[in-house]
Amino acid sequence: MYRNMEECILDLEKHGHLIRVREEVDPYLEMAAIHLRVYEAGGPALLFERVKGTKFRAVSNLFGTLERSKFIFRKTWTNTQNIIALKSNPLAALKTPFKSIGTGWAALKALPMKGGSRPVTAQEIRISDLPLIHHWPMDGGAFVTLPQVFTEDPSKPGIMNSNLGMYRVQLSGNSYEPDREVGVHYQIHRGIGIHQDKANKLGQPLKVSIFVGGPPAHTLSAVMPLPEGLSELTVAGMLSGRRFRYSYVDGYCISNEADFVITGEIHPGETKPEGPFGDHLGYYSLVHPFPVMKVHKVYARTNAIWPFTVVGRPPQEDTAFGELIHELTGDAVRQEIPGVKEVHAVDAAGVHPLLFAIGSERYTPYQNIKRPAELLTIANRILGTGQLSLAKYLFITAEDGMPLDTHREVEFLTYILERIDLHRDIHFQTQTTIDTLDYSGTGLNSGSKVVFAAYGDKKRELCREVPDSLKRVRGFENPRLIMPGVVAIQGPQFGSYPEAQKQLEALTKAVSEQGALPACPMIILCDDSSFVSADLRNFLWVTFTRSNPSHDIYGVNSYYDNKHWGCDNVIIDARSKPHQAPPLVQDADVDKNIDRLFAKGGSLSGIKI
After folding, report:
1. For residue 105, what pLDDT is reported?
2. Residue whose C-alpha is closest to residue 12's, from 48, 62, 58
3. CA 60, CA 5: separation in Å to the nearest integer?
4. Quick check: pTM over 0.85?
C-alpha cells in the first residue's frame, strides 16, 4: 500500500522491477523513444533522474506488464475485485455473506477523506517548469499522457458527484498562451462532457483539476470503466489501501497526495485547435477544436515525479492497462448486458474499431433451424453500451456445444467464417458515431458500423491456401493467405471513392467470372498484401483501422433485398485513404541517439533488445 509515487518506485526498484536512467535525456522525442524500446523488450519501469529543461524526475512503463501491475496492487487486488463484483451483482453478497464481510470493511475504508496535510501544495510552479515531453515527431506540442482529470457535477457539486477521467491534456504548442492555457481533449460518452454541458447550460465555467502522479491506484482508477454509481475516487481508495485524501483550495479540488496538480476553468464555447497527437490506433489524431482550460495555479510536491506513457500502435503500455482492467472488472459487462458471455475489444486493431463477442441464442429452442436471433438483440445492446458504442466492427456468435474464446482471434474468426450466411448475417448501421480518434469515417466522430452475426451448423470448409482463381484476377496482384478463409490482395493506390467504386466493380466482376468461391468468404484489398499477411497483428490493424464499413465493404454478386445487403464474398477495402491520418513513424536520428543508453556502461545496457 503506497502513500505516494515515491514509495511505489522504491518498492519496484527493491524487487527488480525498475531501473534508474542516470544520463541526461531530452524530453523532445528521446524519452519516448527510450520508453518504446524498453517496452518492446519487455523491460522494467524507468525512472529518468535528469530530464533536460526541468528539475523534476519522470517515470514511465510502470504498468508495462501485467505481472508488474499486479505486483503493484498485490495487497489490495482481491478486495477491490470483490467490491466491483458486488456492485455489478449485489445478490452475490446474500449468497456468500461471510466472504463479503471483509469486502464491506474495505469499502468503508475507501471512502474519500477531506482535509489533512497537503504535500502536493509544497510549491507553486508554472506549466513551463514541468517535464514537457514531446512523444512523436508530428505532435503539436507536449502532452500529459497519464492525467487524472477531475470535475464535479455543476448541478449537485461534491466529491461523490465527481468524475475522474483520463483525457489527454496539451501543455504547449499551437496557439495556447504559454503557462496560461492548456488544451483538454475528451472523446464522446465521457463524464466530463456531461459536466461541461451542464455548466454551459448554467452559463458558468467548469472548474477542472488535473492530478498527475500520486499513488498508482489513482492513475488506474481514472481509466477504469465502472458500474453506474461506483465512484472512481472510491476505487482509487480501495486499490491504494487507504482513503483518497483531498482538499479544496481557491474552490478547486486538490488531490493531497498527487505529485502535481493543475487547476483552471473551461468557459462555455471557448475552444482552440488541439493536436496533432500520436494515438492508440497507430496514427496521428489531427488538429481539431477542443476545450481550452484557463490555468489558475500549478502545484508540485517536494521531489515530485512526473509519470508518463507513450501512446502508439498496439501493443503499448495501455495494452497492459486493458488487461489489468479486464481482470479487475471481471463480469461487469455480463451483468450489464443480459445474454452476453464475453466481449473482447481487440487491442491489435486499436481497441475501439473491432469487437469480438460471444452471446446466447435462446429465443427459439423449439425450432430445428439455427440462425442468429437473440444475437442481434445482444449486438444492439453491445453497440449501445458506454465505450463499446464506439466500435465499427462487431463479430458475434454463440457457443453451440463447442467452447469459444474471443482472445484466440484466429480460432474465433474461423468459427464465424465457417458458419456465416453472407446473404443474411451482415447488418449495417450508417450515419452514426465512431471513435473520435478514428479517421476512417466521414468526419470527426462520424462513420458507420457493421455486425457479422453467425450461428448454426458449419456451412463451408475454409481455404488453407490462396485459391487459384484469385491468382488470375487482372489489375490486382500478390494474393496472400492471411488465415483460413481470408486472403489479402494488392490493388492500385486509392484515389477517391468514385474511383474506388469502379475499381471494386472490376474486382468483384473478375472474381465472380472465375466461378463460385465459397471457401474464401473474406477478401482484404490493401496497399501491401505481403505486410498485411505477415502476421495476425498486421491484418487486424490495417483492416479495421483503415476501413469505414458503409463505404469500404463491397461484395461479389452483392445485392439489396428490401434494404438488406448480401453477397457471396465480402471484400473490405483497407487501402490508405487521403482523408485518413498518417501512421506513426519514429525519428531515425533520435532512435540512433539513444543507443548510448543501451551501450556498455549505459544505464540500460542490461536490457536485451
Report:
1. 47
2. 62
3. 12
4. yes
For residue 459, how many C-alpha atoms fall within 13 Å in the half-sphere facing its CB? 21
Strand pairing report for 393-398 and 446-454: parallel
Query: Count of CB atoms within 10 A of residue 368's CB?
Result: 5
R_g of the chain, CA atoms, integer Å: 25
> What are residue 264's phi and psi, to 5 degrees?
175, -170
Residue percentage of the chain with pLDDT more than 90 = 76
| Predicted confidence (pLDDT) per residue in 238-251, tens digit | 888 889 999 999 99
pLDDT (tens digit per residue) in 268-322: 999 999 999 999 999 999 999 999 999 999 999 999 999 999 999 999 998 888 8
Helix (H, G, I), strand (E, B) or coil at 25: strand
How far is 298 from 589, CA to CA, in rounded Å?
A: 34
Query: Hey, what's the cell of 434?
Result: 465512431
Which three-class secondary structure state does DSSP give residue 561? Answer: strand
Q: Containing H/E element for 11?
A: helix 5-14
Asked if residue 13 lies in contact with residue 57, where contact means CB atoms within 8 angstroms, the answer is no
Q: What is the mean pLDDT of residues 400-409?
A: 90
Amino acid at 597: L
CA distance 546 to 441: 9
Helix, strand or coil for residue 212?
A: strand
Smallest CA-to-CA distance from 234 within 221, 248, 219 is with 221
Spell out where 243-341 has E strands.
245-249, 252-255, 260-274, 277-278, 284-285, 288-300, 305-308
Among 123-127, 244-248, 358-362, the minimum mean pLDDT is found in: 358-362
> Cell triple for residue 12?
519496484
Cell numbers 480501495 label which residue? 238
Torsion of CA 9, 134, 130, 249, to 10 degrees: -90
Identify the CA nearest to 235 among candidates 162, 326, 243, 211.
243
Q: Which of 25-29, 134-138, 341-345, 582-586 has the lowest mean pLDDT?
A: 341-345
Give me the residues paired with residue 45 across strands. Answer: 18
Instruction: With H, G, I as helix, E, B as strand and everything else as coil, classify residue 368.
Output: coil
What's the pLDDT tens digit per position in 375-397?
Answer: 999 999 999 987 888 899 999 99
Spatial contact of 293 and 272, defined as CB atoms under 8 Å apart: no
Interatomic CA distance for residues 248 and 114, integer angstroms: 9
- Is the CB of residue 178 less than 8 Å from the CB of residue 196? no
State the chain's mean pLDDT as an integer: 91
Determine contact, residues 440/549, Cβ cutoff 8 Å.
Answer: no
**Partners of 569 in the β-ladder:** 556
Phi and psi at 511, nearest 5°, equal -65, -40
Distance CA 277, CA 136 (A): 7
Span between the terminal Cα atoms of the chain, in Å: 33
Q: Say if CB 148 and CB 212 are below 8 A apart.
A: yes
Query: What strand order describes the sheet that includes 426-433?
Result: 342-345, 354-359, 393-398, 446-454, 426-433
- Angle of helix 317-329 relative to helix 77-88, nearest 10 degrees, comes to 60
Side chain identity at 28, as an amino acid letter? Y
What is the distance of C-alpha 228 from the center of its chain?
20
Q: For residue 449, give the 3-state DSSP assignment.
A: strand
Q: Strand, coil or helix: what is 118?
A: coil
Mutual orientation of helices 409-419 and 536-545 as an angle, nearest 10°? 60
